[in-house]
Every structure is written in C-alpha cells, then in structure tokens.
Specification:
The chain is of the alpha/beta class. It is 32% helix and 22% strand. The chain has eleven helices and 14 strands. The chain has helices at residues 15-26, 69-72, 120-126, 141-154, 170-178, 194-207, 224-228, 236-247, 302-321, 328-334, 344-356; strands at residues 6-11, 43-44, 47-48, 52-59, 93-95, 131-134, 157-160, 182-184, 211-221, 259-266, 273-284, 288-299, 325-327, 362-363. It has an eight-stranded mixed β-sheet with strand order 5-4-1-6-7-8-13-14, with helices on both faces. The protein has a four-stranded mixed β-sheet with strand order 10-9-11-12. Helix 3 packs parallel to helix 4 (141-154), helix 6 (194-207) packs parallel to helix 8 and helix 10 crosses helix 11. The longest helix has 20 residues, at 302-321. It is globular and about 65 Å long.
C-alpha cells in the first residue's frame, strides 16, 4: 500500500510558495465532495489536499533562511494575498544555492543569508521527501540544473514550475528515467491566467475559421517575478515558453514579427497582482477584419497554487505506479512548455484518464 501522505520540499520561498502553503492549510478540512476553485478534484486519485506535508524548504534570502516555513512565506519582499493562518510547521528554511538565482534587480532588495549552502541532497533524503517543487526566479538556469542533480541523487520526483527546460528536454528525461523517477514540467500554467486565456482564444479563432494575422500579450505586475524580469537577459526562456504555448494551438506559421508574448514591466504598487492585455487581429469571411482586445486582472500566485497542488498529487501517483521520465499527461495540462503539446480539452481528457489509471505516457517510453 502506498504511503497516504505526500512529502513535499520547496525550492524558493517566494509568493508562489506562500500561496501554495496557505492553500494546503486553507482547504485542509474540505469534504471529499466539495468544490474547490482551482483544483481538478478535492481528492485526486487517493490523495486529499491535506495529504500534502511539507518536509523541507530552501532559499537564500537573509529574511527567510532560519525561519519556520510558516513565517518565511510572509517575510522578505513577498506580497501576495494572505488568505490563511498557517500554524507553526517545524520546517526551517535551509540555506540554498545561489548560482544565477539572484539577478541584478533582485540584489537590490534581497540580501544573501550568511554561511555555506546546506546539504540539499542529505536534507531531502533525511526528510524522506517524495516530491520537490522548483519555484526559483525566472532565468535561474544554472541554479535549477544544480538543484536537479541533488534531486536525482536524493531519489525524489520533480515538479518544475519555472521556464528552465527540464521536463521537455530529452537529456533530462533520460536522467530521470535512469533513476526511476518522474518529472512534470515545465513552467506552471495558472488556473485562468494570461497564457491559458490566450491559448483558448487562439483555439477559438482557429476552430471558427478566423485566420489569425497578428497577436500580442503584454503582462505587468508588482511582485519580484516582474522585477526580476526587468533584466531582459533572464527573459529568453520565459518568452519561448509563453510564445510556444500559444503558437502550438495555431496550425500555421504567423512569423516572428506577428506575435509578441511576454512580461512587459514592473509596477510596484500592484504587488502580487498581474494585469494582462491581449490583442488579436484576424481575417474573416470576405477578407473582413476581426479584432479582439481583452484585459485580465489576477492575483498572480494564488492563481497557480491550486494547479501546483494537483501537479504534486499527480507526481506522487506516478511514484506509486513506478512511472519514470517525463509525465506526458500531467505536463501537458499543468505546464506551458510540456514535452508534448495538446489542445486544452484533449489535455484535460487525457489527464483525467491518467488519474483513473487508464493512461500513463512517459518520455522516454517505459521499457
């Protein structure tokens, strides 16, 4: 019988971690038949939300390292909505690895904790962690790959919430398969965020026979993610991830100059709110133009927390079933840059089949 708990570690205790930890406690006592906004199911497979137990946390911020996770999620520059009182968890935030995780603008507000990097692999092993979540800042290419090596050595599954490409890359798929471990990636989608909304509108245009000529998606907000992405060099993977998520729904090439998708600016007073502006220009019957403009406002981090809860539970299901490598069905539904792209309705149907045990596609394929 598989363990009824899911032991979870978090890398990066920012706003996304805050919303996730709050959410697990907010819905701890929800009945199995309750409707919880943002979750596929209150009990997904055999796992309730309350079955998630946090075992370890890693960060480099001097305002967070050494604090209990319940305190750290409300410390430092974190500025997401507080919607739950989180009890003392007995989980200290350990000193993580910096590498390229601290960009030029984040250095202005985040000061590194003193001391050396803690024994990440040893901590994951001692705490018997099942699943590790990567919530490092965008652009943390080297730091992410360093942590992935620790995760592989510790024998944990990975849910990669950021646009450093792990789950979609053949090299890392092979590394996880060799260790008999699953990975879900890359770059978490929100419940109803800019990317999923743009994808659905794109698919609507295509399905209804509108030729898409040009489109843009402009995003700005006031959290550290947007501050970090003022450093344009850190944006490359994020732009690739968000652009591919949209263009994967279009059966023809728009040309690079006709599509722009990506973060645009940082407005401090917005805090963890994100504003998204989408414009789509198309051609309809008789070569008549059709234009659409839309604005979306969301609290950025709570918007993805429920999706991460589902992704973590799907990763544990994979561990229970002995699946290894990149998980196709969960990645396609939860992530912007999965190993295989589907339309969203197909991805949802495939994932429900995965949860029921009727599907379980991995890359590389299981022997």
């Amino acid at each position: 019988m598989a363990d009824s708990k899911i032991r979870v570690a978090i890398i990066g205790i920012g706003n996304c971690a805050s919303a996730l930890v709050q959410g697990v406690h907010f819905y701890n006592n929800a009945p199995d038949d309750a409707f919880i906004p943002g979750l596929m199911h209150t009990r997904l497979g055999r796992y309730h939300v309350r079955d998630i137990e946090f075992t370890a946390a890693f960060d480099i911020d001097s305002q967070k390292v050494g604090k209990d996770l319940s305190q750290a999620i409300f410390s430092g520059p974190n500025n997401t909505a507080k919607f739950a009182e989180v009890p003392h968890l007995g989980i200290p935030v350990h000193r993580g690895m910096t590498h390229d995780g601290l960009g030029k603008y984040l250095k202005e507000i985040i000061h590194k904790a003193p001391g050396p990097t803690d024994d990440i692999r040893g901590i994951l092993q001692r705490t018997q962690t099942d699943v590790v979540i990567n919530f490092l800042p965008v652009g943390s290419e080297m730091a992410t790959k360093w942590y992935v090596e620790q995760i592989l050595d510790a024998g944990c599954a990975l849910v990669n919430g950021i646009p450093v490409f792990i789950g979609r890359e053949a090299y890392w798929q092979g590394r996880f398969a060799e260790r008999g471990l699953p990975v879900i990636g890359d770059d978490i989608k929100s419940q109803v965020g800019a990317t999923i909304l743009h994808r659905v509108l794109t698919r609507l245009f295509v399905d209804r026979g509108v030729r898409i000529d040009r489109t843009y998606q402009l995003n700005f907000g006031g959290n550290t993610d947007f501050l970090n992405m003022l450093e344009r060099e850190r944006l490359q993977s994020k732009k690739i991830s968000k652009t591919n998520a949209v263009t994967s729904q279009i059966p023809y090439d728009l040309g690079d100059k006709n599509i722009h998708v990506g973060p645009s600016d940082y407005v401090p007073w917005l805090e963890d709110r994100k504003w998204c502006h989408i414009r789509m220009e198309g051609t309809t019957f008789g070569n008549v133009p059709l234009n659409l403009e839309l604005k979306l406002e969301v609290w950025d981090s709570p918007n993805s927390a429920g999706v991460m809860i589902d992704a973590v539970r799907c990763a544990k299901i994979a561990l229970d079933r002995g699946l290894s490598g990149a998980l196709v069905e969960p990645s396609a539904y939860f992530m912007k840059s999965p190993p295989v792209q589907f339309t969203d309705d197909a991805a949802h149907e495939n994932l429900e089949a995965y949860i029921r045990g009727e599907r379980g596609t991995t890359l590389p394929p299981q022997a």
